[in-house]
């Protein structure tokens, strides 16, 4: 982990704070690319992921935007209420599961709410590179639109269209028109809340956009219905130990109860930290991290939230 100083904490919109993080001695931070995120360790010890939203050419600081989400399981509330300017916190090196395809002829960026953080970083990068792109940014209202001034003052302001839920019908996002013609060389990037993501992704799929041209990052898992969850077994390939996973426990919870530690972070299938190889059996994938093609291979799964279709999974643990 890297210790960083919270250089500033500023309100960027209603319920959204932007944190500027730097090394206490001012030394350079590890480089990152557009779409990258860092793990942030909160005062309670839990770890959450936040996308970097400053320009990737900057090495003296990282900037993250955090929405105060009342439905948060402790992450965003703690960032808002317990982390202050002048605090020192631990973060990971940046990782990128949502990179730009640099050979794209054109990029179409779709941001919903706080999902703007990686998308803004991408827009900065594309503008800096002189690449062809357009950005669509959907929020509930101007007051809930983070970075609105930064975008309006940017060199790429004319490439960004804002869409407000409380605005008139003419300015609402019309994904079907924007995506009407799948075009070779054009890549889509989508980040936002579940309903927004589903709308854009389903529209793209229905209109024939090839999966390899559509890139998405979930920043929060949607609520999951656990009412039909059943029990299953896991077998650890290293020791042959077999553990029962009851309907009301995750694989990680059972492993922890047996003092078997594997790395995990978001506990909701978003970050990929817990990704584990599956040697036998068929997982019931519940995560937002693996692509559909990766899920279909059934050779890895996220034990923080995913379960099993088969009675037993043999895991590479
Ligand atoms: S801990 Fe994040 S996907 Fe499992």
Write the layout of secondary structure elements.
Elements: E1 2-13, E2 16-22, E3 37-41, E4 47-51, E5 62-67, H1 75-82, E6 88-91, E7 106-112, H2 116-129, E8 132-139, H3 148-152, E9 160-164, H4 175-178, E10 186-192, H5 194-206, E11 214-218, E12 232-236, E13 242-245, H6 251-257, E14 276-280, E15 283-284, H7 292-297, E16 300-301, E17 307-308, E18 312-315
Parallel strand pairs: 7-8, 7-10, 8-9, 10-11, 12-18
Antiparallel strand pairs: 1-2, 1-6, 2-5, 3-4, 3-6, 12-13, 14-16, 14-18, 15-17
The protein binds FE2/S2 (inorganic) cluster.
Largest sheet: 6 strands, antiparallel
Ligands = FE2/S2 (inorganic) cluster
Content of β-strand = 25-35%
SS class:
alpha/beta
Rg is 20 Å
Lateral strand order in the biggest sheet: 4-3-6-1-2-5
Strand tally: 18
Q: What is the overall shape?
A: globular
Helix content: 10-25%
Q: What is the number of helical segments per DSSP (H or I, 4+ residues)?
A: 7
What pattern of helices and strands is seen along the backbone?
A: EEEEEHEEHEHEHEHEEEHEEHEEE
Oligomer: single chain
Beginning-to-end CA distance, first to last residue: 24 Å
Structural features, described:
Residues 232-317 form the 2Fe-2S ferredoxin-type domain. The chain is of the alpha/beta class and 317 residues long. It has seven helices and 18 strands. It has helices at residues 75-82, 116-129, 148-152, 175-178, 194-206, 251-257, 292-297, and strands at 2-13, 16-22, 37-41, 47-51, 62-67, 88-91, 106-112, 132-139, 160-164, 186-192, 214-218, 232-236, 242-245, 276-280, 283-284, 300-301, 307-308, 312-315. The strands form four sheets. The chain has a six-stranded antiparallel beta sheet, covered by helices on one side. Strands 9-8-7-10-11 form a five-stranded parallel beta sheet, with helices on both faces. Strands 13-12-18-14-16 form a five-stranded mixed beta sheet. β12 and β13 (242-245) form a beta hairpin. It is globular and about 60 Å long. The model has no long low-confidence stretch (mean pLDDT 92). FE2/S2 (inorganic) cluster is lined by residues 264-267, 269-274, 287, 289, 302, 304.
């Amino acid at each position: 982990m890297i210790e960083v100083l919270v250089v500033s904490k500023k309100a960027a919109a209603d319920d959204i704070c932007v944190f500027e993080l730097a090394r206490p001695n001012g030394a350079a931070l590890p480089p990152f690319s557009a779409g990258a995120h860092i793990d942030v360790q909160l005062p309670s010890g839990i770890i959450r992921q936040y996308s970097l939203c400053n320009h990737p050419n900057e090495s003296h600081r990282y900037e993250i935007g955090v929405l105060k989400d009342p439905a948060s399981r402790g992450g965003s509330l703690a960032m808002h209420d317990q982390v202050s300017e002048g605090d020192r916190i631990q973060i990971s090196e940046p990782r990128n599961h949502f990179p730009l395809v640099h050979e794209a002829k054109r990029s179409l960026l779709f941001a919903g709410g706080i999902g703007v953080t990686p998308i803004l970083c991408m827009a900065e990068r594309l503008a800096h590179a002189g690449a062809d792109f357009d950005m669509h940014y959907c929020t509930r209202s101007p007051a809930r639109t983070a970075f609105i001034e930064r975008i309006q003052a940017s060199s790429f302001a004319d490439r960004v269209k804002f869409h407000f839920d409380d605005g008139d019908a003419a300015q609402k996002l019309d994904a079907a028109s924007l995506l009407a013609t799948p075009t070779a060389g054009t890549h889509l990037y989508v980040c936002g809340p579940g309903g927004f993501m589903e709308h854009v992704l389903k529209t793209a799929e229905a209109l024939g956009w090839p999966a390899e041209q559509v890139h998405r990052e979930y920043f929060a898992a949607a609520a999951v219905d656990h009412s039909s969850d059943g029990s299953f077994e896991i077998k650890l390939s290293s020791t042959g130990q077999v553990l029962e996973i009851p309907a009301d426990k995750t694989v990680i919870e059972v492993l922890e109860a047996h003092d078997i530690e594997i790395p995990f972070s978001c506990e909701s299938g978003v970050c990929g930290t817990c990704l584990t190889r599956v040697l036998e059996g068929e997982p019931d994938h519940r995560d937002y991290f693996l692509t559909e093609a990766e899920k279909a291979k059934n050779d890895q799964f996220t034990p923080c939230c995913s379960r099993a279709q088969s009675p037993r999974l043999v895991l590479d643990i």
